[in-house]
Give the backbone structure.
Amino acid sequence: MLDPHDNRTMVLEMPTFIGYARVSTADQNLDMQVDALKAAGCHTVFTDVASGAKADRPGLDEALKYLRKGDTLMVWKLDRLGRTLAHLVKTVDELRDRGVSFRSLTDAGIDTATGTGKLMLNLFASLAEFERDLIRERTKAGLKYAASQGRQGGRRPVITPAKLEMAQQLIAKGRTVREAAAAIKVGKTPLYEALRALPGEAKG
């Protein structure tokens, strides 16, 4: 049913492109992304100034609320949308369930309105599952390390298995080791030591 007070419902046959742009610091400029999105047909562009790991993105929240079935969410580049690969896949899956397409301007083939784009996103979903499997394996190895540390000298371990698992989950979501250590209320040094026992290198 047409709503005379809503311009978006006046011509239902016309596809609606909604843009989302993000920069990670206030020193960076959104203009390039916004200009590219508008040139691609986005009549509305939502923006954020937030780091890739930061969960709070009011601009993205507003964009997701604004989108309707049949719309297309457009970004300049994939990493502008997702904090992690798993978060990207989850967001695009939720859009698909709502009947909303997704397109990246600079990542070739990423357009879920096309068969090739859907295939690419299926590949990303497989990679996200691989990432989760790696995290689980590393967590198990870390738990064994923490348990062995707890048996040495009868001292209570600084990094308990539960805290290490929580730290792993935080780091997987984009937090640094320092931020994860602060969140679980331990020093960064013992957390680094626990993480060094896992495959890969701790970053912070």
About this structure: The helical segments are 31-39, 58-66, 85-97, 115-150, 161-172, 177-183, 188-196. Residues 23 and 30 are 6 Å apart (CA to CA).
